[in-house]
From TrEMBL:
Keywords for the protein's UniProt record, in alphabetical order: Calcium, Hydrolase, Magnesium, Membrane, Metal-binding, Phenylalanine catabolism, Transmembrane, Transmembrane helix, Tyrosine catabolism
Gene: fah
Pathway: Amino-acid degradation; L-phenylalanine degradation; acetoacetate and fumarate from L-phenylalanine: step 6/6
Annotated organism of origin: Sander lucioperca
One Gene Ontology MF term: metal ion binding
The protein's name in its UniProt record: Fumarylacetoacetase
Transmembrane region(s): 19-38, 45-64
Amino acid sequence: MFGHLISCYFCFCKTKFVYYQHMACGMVFYLCCVFTVILHSRNTVCQLIIGRGALCVIFELLFVSPYKPTLNDFMALGYEAWREARRTLQGLLSANESTLRDDVSLRSRAFVHQSTAIMHLPADIGDYTDFYSSKDHATNVGIMFRGKENALMPNWLRLPVGYHGRASSVVVSGTPIRRPSGQMRPDQTKPPVFGPSKQLDIELEMAFFVGGGNQLGEPIPIKKAHEHIFGMVLMNDWSARDIQAWEYVPLGPFLGKNFGTTISPWVIPMEALLPFAEPNSIQDPEPLPYLQHPDAFTFNINLFVSLKGQDMVEAATISKSNFKYMYWTMKQQLAHHTVNGCNVRPGDLLASGTISGPDPESFGSMLELSWRGSKNIDLGGGETRTFLKDGDEVTITVLEINLNLKVPYRENCFLCDFVCDKDSRV
């Protein structure tokens, strides 16, 4: 009893791609991905730049590196190796470096049209953990199910709550998702029923890939956590709310969550984001010492969710949120995950949980936007939703990252003309 297909896409630019402007400033934002060139049989691991549909294949042509089907081995090299690769890429793309600038033949081989590339998952994901780190989201859900007085569980302000998800069903952007079936109990006075979920939802999230791992029994201290965080992806953690509501007591999510999680093929390395970290959320009560870190480790990343039904001409924006709303940081998540000696490995995926802000338009799930189905989400043209319908298409977009840099970008990079000026959806 499979339902119809629903799709999710991720967009890293819309009208203007901020990364490339600032890459040309000498602070290169390089993205990592894995793709297959059509008519070629093997995957290529690359550090890349998108620009008018081009992919810059650096590992293959300019580093001494064998073909690898995923980024796992590169992630495993560790913090200093990632930094060296980034510095090398910065140099190669500098206006003062002739290697690519003056070699037409090399450039023609180093760039692949995006239209000929099939995107893949960037890593083999051994394990996947989903956190629950937005205070606004946790409060909203708590009010809906337990009431305002008991919105947050006693442990929520003390530790980053999370659960172990299903790595095998993490898929790349654009992969169709079938509506799941399972047990539900819509009428509390009657026995449960089996059938397709009627409350299929999205969750706006970001996630990070673990780079270098740790040995079993050896926690990652919070002061070293950044050295183990490789980079970030966009995520939609599909959720069947009616299945989840019936099954989650006492052990937490199961079939309501494990049928599909979509991530972007692009990974933004943390080394590129760290210079632009913003102050963390004020945490009260103060966390225990193993979770304390004074350095800023949150980021002002504007996120947008749009939904397009089968009969809609244009997609409608249903959420405008921001990663800065996270209460618990990625460093705290990783430190807590390993404090008991749990070992993590290169390519493990740790997700933020739903990213919701204080205002209704910044809620990151349809559960919140419709307030558990009690009100319609207006899509325009007479279209409304409470939860997803068959054939709906969801797009999560990073419109910009607020970097507040003032340097004119066109003076420092020979690839300045490759600034993306159209939507690039993957």
